[in-house]
Amino acid sequence: MTWNSQRYQWSSGDEVLYSFWRLDGSLGNVHPARVVSDDGDELLCWVLPDTPVRTTTSPDGRHPRELPLAERFSGPRVPALSTWRGTSTLRLVHESRWSSVWWFFKPSGEFRNWYVNLEIPRGRDEYGVRRVDGVLDVEVMADGSWSWKDEDELDDALAAGRFDHAELAKLRAEGEEMISLAKDGAFPFDGTYCDARPDPSWSVPKLPAHLLS
Fold first, then answer.
1. Residue 55 domain boundaries
2. Which terminus of the chain is more exposed, N or C, with fewer CB under 10 A?
């Protein structure tokens, strides 16, 4: 698949799609979001509670997390409608970085923790940003403590061709760099945006119907 490198830019309040693709060109999860700011390279956006999202399941309706590891990253998938539940997330995604940073908030609006979602960047299209999920992630708590997430899934993801060893090395290096920033209390782990709130006038973004067919 040829990835789109054309430049797109959005304004505050616009709806965008935060889309996760696979390297074989198939579409995975899609999270509609509202733009806070965007300069064409760095996008800051909210994914709000109760937002309809596209997910994929096995043909018998099982979510990947319900499948044994040997099947989690392989086999046929079908699109399914789900909902972003429980908490809002503010997301910072840079065009060329191999990660995005998510601020998680409690239902009360209080900051909860950061989540470094390791990703392979794949540009933008007219609808939003395109990323490939890197499986491996880093969770950073409000006190600066951190931990790797989902390391147990890497061998099966590699075997299924979700990425190769060189790409995994780059994803891990990105995680190490973000851990170093967390240890130093440097941006984005310096308290910036921890008091952020979505615009109360915003409605929940829509999920285009064609993404479920």
1. 14-186
2. C
CA distance 32 to 46: 9
Rounded to a whole number of angstroms, the CA Rg of the chain reads: 17
Is residue 25 helix, strand or coil? coil
1-10, 18-27, 93-102, 106-115, range with the lowest pLDDT: 1-10
Examine residue 54 and state whether it is found in any structural domain, yes or no.
yes
Q: What is the pTM of this model?
A: 0.93
Mean pLDDT of the chain: 94
Assigned domain for 193 exists: no
How many whole angstroms from its chain centre is CA 68?
22
Determine, yes or no, domain membership for 138. Answer: yes
In DSSP terms, which residues pair with 38 in a beta bridge? Answer: 43
Number of folded domains in the chain? 1
User: Do residues 67 and 160 lie in contact, with contact meaning Cβ atoms separated by under 8 Å?
Assistant: no
φ/ψ of 85, rounded to 5, equals: -115, 155
pLDDT digits (tens, 9 = 90+) for 138-181: 999 999 999 999 999 999 999 999 999 999 999 999 999 999 99
What CATH number is associated with residue 148?
2.40.380.10
Q: How far apart are CA 133 and CA 52, in angstroms?
A: 19
DSSP state of 188: T
pLDDT in the model for residue 3? 46
